[in-house]
Amino acid sequence: MFWKTIRVSDNERVIVMIDGRFRQILAPGVHRYPAWPLTRAKLQVETCYLTDQTFTNSAASLLLKEYPDVVKEHFVVVETRDTQAAVVYADGKVWKVIGPGKQVLFWNSPKAVAADYVSFAEAPRVAEKLRAPLTRLGRESGISTVTVDEGKVGLWYFESKLRETLAPGTYAFWTWAGNTRVEQIDMRMAPLEVNGQEVLTKDKVTLRVNVSARYQILDAVRAVATVKDVYAHLYLLVQFAIRETFGKRTLEEILGNKVSIDEGVVSKIRKDMATCGVRVDEIGVKDVILPGDLREIMNRVVEAEKTAQANLIRRREETAATRSLLNTARLMDENPILVRLKELETLEKLTEKVDRISVTNGLEGLLEQIKIGR
Question: Where in the sequence is the domain holding 14, given as residue range(s)?
Fold first, then answer.
């Protein structure tokens, strides 16, 4: 009889087969095994390295079925049903994820291997404590992640049914669970611009109007359940409000007063949107734009009005000046001393503009010469 020496290191295990049939698994150490002549029986050994403790040998199914004691001694068995996943730990740390409907053997050393089972049919959302470690595993984790941004809420739909409302943060879901979708709804105050709306006034004049509004979604679930598109729904209501407001006013009324959307119409819009879980803050008219030809006519009218106002002011000033002269003349006629003072005032102004003055016959002679132009 021949003997074969088999040396097994600490990071190895050796599977012994005789004539293709499993015989045993050798632990670390030195082993001697009888080896029959090739004509009678054949000894086969296969070395398994424990760098990855996953047992990938083709004999796994055979061991599970025929040698349960061997499996119990050397392996940790992880077996999942069709609606389960298993989170495998090595020395207490998340190591692998085993998908549904699988049976995997792990060597029970050098690291301590354990598994937690998760029923994703009952809990399709990954527990928060597992999200970060499973995310680090990448594609092998069997999860997908969604981040809900600040200022928004996430509506989580599972199999087309609303399951939960998610606050801002990152969430993970099992990919094997089924159809999972997260719709993000912005809960912040948002503007609505309704520009270039052509309306017909009461006196059949076509105008273009720009209107702005502000709104905020307060109840995301009700908003999604009530209307398909909150923005489009409010846009349509504001369009109707513009036509209802400007359609019952004449051009003169529109231009003569600061136009605003009727309060009754605004109240109706707010009530309608409140049933959708949306608050409308304000609706205001930004611009009223006249057609080109009408704008030119209005400019000429304004120009004529301003010219007339300027002429009126000028005539008022001329009348006031004439009245002032008339009053002065009456005072001078009634008071000769006032006339003399006026003459002296005039003489003072004249003397300021000449270098030399010759006076004969006194002041009376000077005044007389000025009067006759000498």
Answer: 1-51
